Structures are given as C-alpha cells and as structure tokens.
C-alpha cells in the first residue's frame, strides 16, 4: 500500500542518517542495526515508540537487507539474526456456540443474510472476498458438498490466495432460496460492503446479541472453531487464504483464542 511505502522510505532515511549516508551497505554490521533500534527505543526521553512501530522497523531492516543479500549486493545479511517481537493485539470477544445458533436462527427468514453468514462462518471468507463472489464461483454439481472458488484479478497480485472451499450441505438450499428471492445475475451480492454490514447488524439485533459483531469477528470465529475441531494450523492458513507473513500475525491470535488456559 502507499502507506507501507511511505513508512519504508521514512525508516530508510532515518537509518541512513544514523549510519552515515556515505557508509557502504556492505560494511554495515548487526551491531549498527541493534544500536539504531536501541536509540529509537530509548534515545528520546518521554517519546517511547509504540511496540507496533518498533516491530515495523525491525521488519524494514530484515526486508531491506535480505533483499540486498538475495540480489548479491552484500555478502551476508546483518539482519538475519534480529528477532522480530510482534506486539500481541487485544483478543476479540468471539461468539459462543449458543450465540452463533441464535444468529443463524435470526437470519433464517432472510436468505441473503443467511447466505452471507454461511459464507463467513463456514468458509471463513473476508469481506472483500464475499464482495468479489460471482455466481460462476459457486458449484452445486454435488448438492451434498457445495463448493465455492475464490478468485482474484491478476492486477491484484493476490493469486496466492485463490482457493476452493466446501460448505455444509444445507448451504445448497439456502443459496437456492436466495436466488429465488433476489435474482442475482452476476455478482452474488450486488451491493456495497456497507449494505452487508447493515444486513449483518439487523440479524445481530434480532438475535439479541450485545457484542460488537462484524464480518471479521465471524471469520475469527470460523478460524477458532476449525482449530478446536482438530484442523491443523497449516490447513487453516490455506483455508483462510493467508500468506506466510500474514499468518505470522494471525496464528498466535487464533491459538490464544482456541486454547486459552
């Protein structure tokens, strides 16, 4: 994203000023990297950077110097042994099983909402993936094992997240009811993501659930239910369509939620 590029260039300028702009990159040592990080963390009284900011700067160093080493510009990567300590984000308050059933019951008379809930609670789709679904991505050739395929346009660079997912058999009936009532022609949901939030919000209110329920929370609920059911972390990563880097940020969160002591 543009924000990521801006942050990277800002960190690069700060580091360059610290080591000296005339210093050859091949002479930069791990000690200099550590000194820079320590200066940023403790060098300004009353201005301690947030843990997330420090984690981003370590990521910058590791990405920058691993790229230099990979392209043969430097012989050794001085950042290779730097430890990236990612701050633990606060855990979301997931839905209990009885709340999930109440939500599904509240949506049962609205095929559009019912269809939406199944796609997130039983396939773990992100909001952008739900919005990108087309009728051609839904395969009911075996009505007992309905399948959906997640596609991304080549311009997005997200082909690594494409995948094929199975849904419970009852999704077939729910989907057909949705088609009969709303008559979609190309996109599965011909509306804005704000409309999806509104549809979900009405079901949450009807179910009497007091928690803040979002589509991301339902995706988190899917992930935790999968782990509790014995799905391996690697299989879950594939189902969620996460890159290795994104999985590093999510894996610990889901482990803590699924197996809290």
Task: Offer a few descriptive terms.
2 domains, 3-stranded antiparallel β-sheet, 4% strand, 261 residues, mainly alpha, elongated, hpI Integrase, Chain A, single chain
Task: Characterize the structure shown.
This protein has about 260 residues and is mainly alpha-helical. It has two domains: about 1-70; about 95-260, hpI Integrase, Chain A (Orthogonal Bundle), CATH 1.10.443. It has eleven helices and three strands; from the N terminus they run H-H-H-H-H-H-E-E-E-H-H-H-H-H. The chain has helices at about 1-20, 30-40, 50-70, 95-105, 110-120, 125-130, 170-180, 195-205, 215-230, 235-240, 245-260, and strands at about 140, 145-150, 165. Strands 1-2-3 form a three-stranded antiparallel sheet, with no helix packed on it. The mean pLDDT is about 90.
Outline of the structure:
The chain has 261 residues and is mainly alpha-helical. The chain is 55% helix and 4% strand.
Rg (CA only): 23 Å
CATH top level class name of the largest domain: Mainly Alpha
- Helix coverage percent: 40-55%
Element-by-element helix/strand order = HHHHHHEEEHHHHH
Question: Per CATH, which architecture of the largest domain?
Answer: Orthogonal Bundle
Number of alpha- plus pi-helical segments: 11
CATH superfamily of the largest domain: Intergrase catalytic core
Task: Quote the distance from N terminus to C terminus.
Answer: 37 Å
- Spatially, the strands of the biggest sheet line up as 1-2-3
Categorize the overall geometry: elongated
Largest sheet, strands/sense/barrel: 3 strands, antiparallel
Global mean pLDDT = 91
Structural class: mainly alpha
**CATH level-3 fold name of the largest domain:** hpI Integrase, Chain A
Number of strand elements: 3
Low-confidence stretches: none
């Amino acid at each position: 994203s543009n924000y990521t590029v801006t942050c990277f260039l800002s960190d690069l300028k700060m580091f360059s000023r610290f080591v000296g702009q005339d210093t050859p990159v091949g002479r930069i040592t791990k000690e200099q990297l550590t000194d820079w990080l320590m200066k940023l963390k403790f060098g300004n009284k009353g201005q301690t950077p947030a843990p997330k900011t420090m984690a981003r700067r370590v990521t910058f160093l590791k990405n920058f110097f691993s790229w230099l080493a990979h392209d043969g510009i430097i012989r050794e990567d001085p950042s290779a042994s730097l430890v990236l300590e990612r701050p633990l984000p606060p855990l979301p308050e997931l839905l209990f099983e009885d709340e999930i059933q109440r939500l599904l019951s509240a949506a049962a008379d609205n095929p559009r909402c019912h269809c939406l809930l199944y796609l997130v609670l039983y396939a773990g789709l992100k909001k952008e993936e739900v919005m990108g679904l087309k009728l051609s991505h839904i395969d009911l050739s075996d009505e007992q094992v309905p399948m959906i395929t997640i596609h991304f346009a080549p311009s997005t660079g997200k082909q690594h997240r494409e995948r094929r997912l199975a849904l419970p058999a009852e999704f077939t009936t729910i989907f057909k009811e949705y088609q009969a009532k709303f008559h979609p022609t190309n996109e599965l949901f011909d509306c804005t993501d704000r409309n999806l939030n509104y549809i979900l919000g009405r079901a949450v209110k009807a179910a009497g659930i007091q928690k803040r329920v979002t589509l991301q929370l339902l995706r988190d609920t899917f992930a935790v239910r999968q782990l509790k059911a014995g799905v391996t972390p690697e299989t879950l990563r594939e189902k969620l369509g996460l890159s290795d880097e994104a999985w590093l940020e999510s894996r610990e969160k889901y482990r803590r939620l699924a197996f809290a002591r």
